[in-house]
Write a structure and sequence with these properties.
Order of helices and strands: EEEHEEHEHHHHEHEHEE
Structural class: alpha/beta
Helix content: 25-40%
CATH class: Alpha Beta
Length: 239
């Protein structure tokens, strides 16, 4: 895909992005003018109180929510005016997403879940690549198990394998350890940062845990739909 020169060299760029949604109480202003550039290969932590717009900002970055105004650039493309079909293809080729609630298909095995994105792309080696990625996340012995047969930590490892198997330019992670106990969550985060570093993936990580955010090379604080602080970190991910 051709680069969009207006996006500069950033892996992600938001320019005066707003997001307003209609609720029973009327119009709700969720994002109120976000300006943000994320460098290629950067690990960005996003923190802030509930309702500050963290998840909404991730959804706008992925093209899953359309900004009400402003422009969104990702991986060299201006997403602002793309059709829904073009956005789906763009996500398939460039964006990996990991959610708090795993979002695995219950009737598919671990291998089938991990292969979804590469199958959608029409890759002839989809299952070979997915098998190798599941092996890399320590689940080579659980390929034929269904989500209900896996622990929470194992389900999130399948979700990580699914996100990384396409070798995405950008990985968006929304509270990926939110449903896991402390030790399991720490193991999953170790795996996420290891895979990110090996592939050179740009990471945007929403978390409520200061220790997790501190592993990123940079942390932004959202409050009331705006960036309240932007700090460089001495986190391990920067090394």
């Amino acid at each position: 895909m051709p680069d969009d020169s207006t996006a500069g060299d950033a892996a992600l760029r938001l320019e005066q992005v707003t997001l307003s949604l209609t609720s029973d109480a009327g119009l709700v202003n969720i994002l109120r003018g976000i300006d943000l550039a994320v460098d290629p290969g950067e690990a960005l932590g996003v923190v802030g109180p509930s309702g500050s717009g963290k998840t909404s900002m991730l959804m706008v970055m992925a093209g899953l929510e359309r900004a009400s105004s402003g422009r969104v650039h990702a991986a060299g493309r201006d997403l602002t005016d793309l059709s829904e079909d073009d956005l789906a293809r763009f996500r398939r080729d460039h964006i990996g997403i990991v959610f708090q609630n795993f979002h695995l298909v219950p009737t598919m095995t671990a291998l089938e879940n991990a292969a979804l994105a590469v199958e959608f792309a029409g890759a002839a080696d989809a299952f070979d690549r997915s098998r190798a990625m599941l092996d890399a996340v320590g689940l080579g012995h659980r390929l034929d198990h269904y989500p209900s047969q896996l622990s929470g930590g194992e389900q999130q490892r399948v979700a990580l394998a699914r996100a990384f198997v396409t070798e995405p330019t950008v990985l968006l992670a929304d509270e990926p350890t939110g449903n896991l106990d402390g030790a399991t969550g720490e193991a999953v985060m170790d795996l996420l940062f290891d895979m990110r570093q090996r592939l050179g993936t740009t990471l945007v990580l929403v978390t409520h845990e200061p220790d997790v955010a501190g592993r990123c090379s940079r942390v932004i604080h959202l409050a009331d739909g705006l960036i309240a602080a932007d700090e460089r970190s001495t986190g391990a991910a920067a090394s």
